[in-house]
């Protein structure tokens, strides 16, 4: 805001400096062409005018070159302008002086610099000078009669011009304040539940619109509720209501128009509305009687809310005098509120979607990890029961393997639970150790299923995010377990290659293949609803690619996953 004010003041100083140079030059030129005024004090007047021309050029050069941003210098130049004005009036017939028009220039300068306050004090100073010169015995100075009528007219002229410029200055100051407030919206948007405070957003809106009460009514897309938020200086009240509790809140024909009324309870009250056809006046009851009774509405300014996911109205209440400017301002405020409500709802939907994705990921992890391992442990325990009497040593070895398997799965499950905790309550976890875990997976599959299995990383694994390393592990795990369980494979081989952006995984087995023959990519598999569903969903969630080449002699899976390499 400071930067905008500086540039605005700089432009004003450019204009004032230019105007001062032009006026001083033409004053001197006019007196030189017609020296009838002044007569007795011509030398003093010419000296003042020449000095003022030089002064104007110097000040103009400084302003044009450096912008003149020092506030005390503005007061100094303004005081010099007033002094020159007083001297020229004194030397040229006082209140009847032709230099009286210079007063307008000084007033405009004061308005540019200090808005209505500058106009007020400059007008008081100029009028005081004029009155003092009128009281001065002019006959002793210039031996001319005093013209009372011209003095009265000029005093009235001074007052009217000062009033008009003061109004413009006050209006500009008000607009600057409103622009500053529009640029400083609070972060609060939608309250989380009824009764919570959303005073920041609506309180800010009330301050901009200069009203003691604001009511916000909106409906969300695909949700059967009317949300009502009422702000006053005492606090904020948020409620959900049944749709239609206030009927059609706004009368027909005004649904998409901004309007204000000072007679909301009257069936023939004056309504000023801003429509596509321009500013119009109507005589009707613009608001539903139930709404008027519920909020004891007398005067109101209503602006529609038209968001992507919400629709409703912003109603500013209890201000005595609304103007057409408030319709434009109310529309801007309503647009800002609608955008923030849309943003809050979109954020809520994204959070819900993220939670659903996290639940789906957890379900996949449990299916691909814990459940598969428990199934393998069950098979090993069944084999142990047959070996207890015939081969006690082999049975003890198998039981030890099951214990190691359960310990590993317990560790994985504890890690998953820790990852789901809030960030501030998590324990520091060790690195995932992808290569080591893949080696352990291959050994476990060998022991559990009594098959040949190998997992090879042909290039060093980059420094992966822990979640990404876990996802790669589960993808390989699911692909290998599917081959041995569902395709009856006896030989399995997984190969992994990494580059800066991708992890490329190839899984080959000698099983029966899938229930189809040929090569299919992920889009074709999804359209035909073929292939391993869980594996396909996991790869799709990671924005990866899957290609399956299936035959009666086995299958080949080519999987490509994007990886994020972290800096050291």
UniProtKB/TrEMBL annotation:
InterPro entries: GAF-like_dom_sf, HATPase_C_sf, Sensor_HK_TwoCompSys, Sig_transdc_His_kin_sub3_dim/P. The chain crosses the membrane at residues 12-32, 44-64, 121-139, 151-171. GO terms for molecular function: kinase activity. The keyword Endoplasmic reticulum does not apply. Residues 358-422 form the Signal transduction histidine kinase subgroup 3 dimerisation and phosphoacceptor domain. Keywords: Kinase, Membrane, Transferase, Transmembrane, Transmembrane helix, Two-component regulatory system. PANTHER family: NITRATE/NITRITE SENSOR PROTEIN NARX-RELATED, SENSOR HISTIDINE KINASE YDFH. This is GAF domain-containing sensor histidine kinase. It comes from Geomonas anaerohicana.
């Amino acid at each position: 805001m400071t930067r905008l004010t500086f540039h605005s003041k700089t432009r004003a100083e450019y204009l004032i400096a230019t105007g001062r140079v032009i006026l001083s030059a033409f004053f001197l030129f006019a007196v030189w062409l017609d020296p009838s005024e002044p007569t007795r004090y011509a030398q003093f007047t010419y000296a003042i005018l020449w000095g003022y021309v030089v002064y104007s050029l110097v000040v103009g050069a400084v302003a044009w070159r450096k912008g003149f941003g020092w506030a005390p210098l503005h007061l100094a130049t303004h005081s010099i302008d007033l002094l020159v004005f007083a001297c020229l009036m004194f030397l040229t017939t006082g209140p009847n002086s032709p230099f009286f028009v210079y007063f307008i220039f000084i007033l405009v300068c004061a308005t540019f610099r200090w808005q209505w306050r500058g106009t007020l004090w400059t007008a008081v100073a100029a009028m005081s000078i004029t009155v003092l010169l009128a009281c001065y015995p002019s006959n002793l100075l210039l031996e001319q009669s005093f013209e009372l009528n011209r003095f009265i007219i000029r005093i009235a002229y001074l007052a009217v011009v000062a009033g008009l410029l003061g109004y413009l200055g006050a209006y500009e100051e008000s607009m600057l304040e409103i622009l500053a407030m529009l640029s400083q919206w609070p972060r609060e948007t939608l309250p989380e539940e009824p009764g919570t405070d959303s005073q920041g957003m609506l309180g800010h809106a009330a301050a901009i619109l200069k009203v003691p009460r604001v009511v916000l009514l909106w409906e969300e897309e695909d949700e059967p509720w009317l949300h009502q938020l009422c702000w006053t200086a005492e606090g904020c009240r948020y409620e959900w209501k049944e749709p239609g509790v206030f009927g059609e809140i706004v009368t027909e024909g005004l649904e998409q128009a901004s309007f204000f009324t000072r007679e909301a309870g009257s069936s023939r009250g004056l309504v000023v509305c801003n429509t596509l056809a321009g500013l119009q006046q109507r005589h009707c009851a613009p608001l539903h009687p139930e709404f008027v009774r519920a909020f004891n509405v007398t005067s109101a300014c209503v602006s529609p809310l038209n968001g992507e996911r919400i629709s409703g109205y912003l109603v500013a209440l209890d201000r005595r005098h609304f103007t057409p400017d408030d319709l434009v301002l109310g529309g801007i405020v309503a647009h800002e509120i609608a955008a923030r409500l849309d943003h809050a709802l979109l954020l809520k939907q994204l959070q819900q979607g993220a939670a659903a994705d996290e639940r789906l990921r957890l379900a996949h992890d449990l299916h691909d990890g814990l459940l598969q391992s428990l199934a393998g442990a069950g098979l090993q325990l069944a084999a142990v029961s047959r070996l207890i009497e015939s081969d006690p040593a082999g049975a003890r070895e198998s039981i030890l393997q099951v214990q190691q398997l359960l310990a590993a799965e317990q560790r994985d499950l504890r890690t998953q639970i820790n990852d789901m905790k809030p960030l501030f309550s998590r324990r520091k976890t060790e690195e995932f150790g992808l290569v080591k875990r893949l080696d352990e997976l291959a050994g476990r599959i060998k022991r559990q299923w009594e098959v040949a299995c190998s997992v090879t990383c042909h290039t060093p694994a980059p420094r992966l995010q822990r979640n990404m390393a876990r996802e790669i592990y589960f993808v390989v795990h699911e692909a290998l377990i599917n081959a041995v369980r569902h395709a009856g494979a006896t030989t399995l081989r997984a190969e992994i290659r990494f580059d800066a952006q991708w992890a490329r995984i190839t899984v080959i087995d000698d099983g029966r293949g899938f229930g189809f023959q040929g090569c299919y990519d992920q889009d074709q598999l999804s359209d035909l609803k073929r292939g391993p569903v869980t594996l396909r969903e996991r790869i799709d969630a990671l924005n990866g690619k899957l290609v399956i080449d299936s035959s009666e002699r086995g299958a080949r899976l080519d999987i490509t996953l994007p990886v994020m390499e972290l800096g050291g």
